[in-house]
Amino acid sequence: MITAIVLIQAAAESIPEAAQAIADIEGVTEVYSCAGDVDLIAKVRVAAHEDLADLIPAKISKVPGVLGTDTHIAFRSYSRADTDAAFSIGVDGV
User: Fold this and answer.
1) What Pfam families does this protein's entry cite (predicted)?
2) pTM for this structure?
3) Residue 94: inside a domain, yes or no?
4) According to the model, what pLDDT value does residue 80 have?
5) Less CB within 10 Å around the terminal CB: N or C of the chain?
6) How far apart are CA 58 and CA 77, in angstroms?
């Protein structure tokens, strides 16, 4: 599974509607509105790199109010939950 983070510039008056429309697209797992250099951040999960080409320019970029996107493909995931799970392996048997 391929995970990508899509930074999205949106027209200020369209942010809530654009965010919901993007969240409704298959392959998009989460959408956040945020402060800073971008207006929305979407987390995308697809089976193959080719699917990103179908999803981002063909769907996300076409949502009314979306002005531009910047996509970052994730190589590896790190989280506290992953670390805690790795260190708890075999603890139940002690």
Assistant:
1) AsnC_trans_reg
2) 0.81
3) no
4) 73
5) C
6) 26
pLDDT tens track for 33-73? 999 999 999 999 999 999 998 999 999 999 999 999 999 99
Segments forming the whole domain that contains residue 19: 2-89
Give dist(CA 17, CA 51) in Å, integer: 24
Task: With CA atoms as reference, report the closest residue to 43 among 28, 61, 62.
Answer: 28
The total of other beta-carbon atoms located within 10 Å of residue 21's CB is: 19
**Number of domains, the chain:** 1
**Structure tokens given for 80:** 């506290």
Count of beta carbons in the 10 Å neighbourhood of residue 73: 11
Q: Token pair for residue 7?
A: 């930074």
| Residue 16 within any structural domain of the chain | yes
Cβ atoms of residues 7 and 73 within 8 Å? no
Name the token pair of 36.
């800073």
Domain-located, residue 33: yes
Kindly report the CA angle at 13 between 12 and 18, in degrees rounded to 5?
85
